[in-house]
Amino acid sequence: MTDFAKAVLQWETSSGMYFEVGTRHGGRESPRALGMTPDGVLAAAFTATSPNGHPNALFAATEDPGVACITDGDTGVRWDGSDSVFLTAGGIDAVQAIKRSGIGELRPLVDVLHDQGVDIFLYNTAGFDLVNYERGRVGWQSDELVFEATAGGTGTLRNARISALNIFLSPSNGPGLQVTGAAGQVILAPQSLNQQLRLHGDLDTGTGPGVVLASSELIGTTGTQTIAAVEASIGQGGTAGYTMLFVNATENTVGDGTNPQLLLDIRRNNIPRFGIDRDGVMIGGFMRSTALTGPSFAINYQNHNTWFDCDTDTAGGDITVTVNQGQSGAVAHFAKKGTGGDVVFAAGSGVTLRGNTTLAPENGVAGVYYVSASEAIVFGEV
Hints:
Blueprint: E1 4-11, E2 19-26, E3 34-36, E4 44-49, E5 55-60, E6 68-70, E7 76-79, E8 84-89, E9 92-100, E10 103-108, E11 110-111, E12 116-117, E13 120-123, E14 133-141, E15 144-152, E16 262-268, E17 271-277, E18 282-284, E19 296-299, E20 307-311, H1 312-315, E21 319-323, E22 331-337, E23 343-347, E24 352-354, E25 358-359, E26 365-372, E27 375-380
Parallel strand pairs: 19-21, 20-22, 21-23, 24-27
Antiparallel strand pairs: 1-2, 3-4, 4-5, 5-6, 7-8, 8-9, 9-10, 11-12, 13-14, 14-15, 16-17, 17-18, 22-26, 23-25, 26-27
């Protein structure tokens, strides 16, 4: 019998280790499938080859090309003989289901043949069109794990949302959390109007700072580069008011004052230039004051860090400035106006005053710097 197709029901002849239910063909006859037909309805078929030519395939009869379970081929479901089952596509084991320590795991795998990671795609478009699509992607890109929304062709790039009671992003080592945006802009905003955006630093016993706004090195050659700006468009009415910058220290308990207690600390090269302490007193810096027109004036703790215009013409002679005890590091500035006399600096009770104590040149400028609470230096055009 040369040309034949037949059914086989027998013990397997070479080893006798299993009972065989199958088909045979020869000559010009083609291979036949072995069907499973509960109640006369074909439910599934074992075929000699799959549509791709791979052997040992099982196809559901109600699908075309069917749901394949290929035990030895490039595409389908493969069992490795142990506790693993692989979802294989094109010769690549893409997903592995494995039992480890009594727990089931489902893991995407690395394409060892092409030395690249296997991506997981979640499509927002029908038909798995690889040209015109909208999809989410999870996968490895170089040495970075990437979660992204992508689009191609006529597809539209969509938003991504992570929603939960609390969301924790925890870099395992160093300041590794980075947010980047398109067109050089990052916007952090509440979900809706009239909600707060809070940046929270958890210092506890640390010395901080808790929240840092930082920039890379400024290397521009023209214009003014601005590190941070507080901007708002005001269109109020009625009795409404506004505050551009609100600073509030809720003092439950405070230290003994050994270290500064400041509401504001402005520095250059980490050297304090200007500050405001917890009582609202300015430390360092200066502000322009009303003109001094009387013959005498005393500077004290309250009016340190001020710029004084000394009008000697109106005073009709010298203006004497008495330097009383003050605060270490404080500076007071004086500008002489007119030719009616000089600005003369005198030491108050318990104060040692050093330097040339007479400011004589018209429009000259001098300063009084407190080395300590009881010692001051006069400097400038004196």
